[in-house]
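The following record pairs a protein chain with its ligand, AR6.
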Amino acid sequence: MLTIGQCRIESQVVDITTLHVDAIVNAANSSLLGGGGVDGAIHRAAGPDLLRECEALNGCPTGDAKLTAGYRLPAKYVIHTVGPVWHGGARDEERLLASCYRRSLAVAREASVKSIAFPAISCGVYRFPADEAVKIALATVIEILPNYPELERVIFACFDDAMHARYERELAAQPSR
Ligand code: AR6
């Protein structure tokens, strides 16, 4: 756990769909019409009204983010972002992944979100190397905090212990502030 200003940043092994936070982030694809992994889990838990709202959004470019309601989820909102597919690193993947976190937080701020949970965007089917992805996730969140003083809680929701250990390592490596 890391506290910066009034924001608590932590990692948990948890199904993101169960979290009582203002917003959860979905690692979607550019159609925004659902898929497997965390996307499938979020659509199943939120119910069919989520897909109906997504259908009206006309998709989302890689690196961008769009807001919907959370419907049957405990979270009030879902912020759908589209991570890059890993192709070896020469296709701007790192910048695009950072952009997912940046844009998700910008959308969250507009919706007055005070607590948010992120999955490990691009670390599943999209094959982004997890160590690097975790560094980008945490660095980008920390970089944005000064411009988002209302943010009180960030949870990195991990599906397994190995991913959780990466966040814990990275959180512990941060200088005290
Ligand atoms: N809660 C938290 N984390 C989860 C959950 C969950 N319920 N389910 C999976 N994860 P992925 P991507 C973890 O593949 O790589 C979809 O089909 C998982 O272990 O869901 O960005 C979309 O429609 C992994 O660490 O997302 C896209 O087509 C992380 O979430 C594509 O997959 C992300 O894995 C996006 O691929």
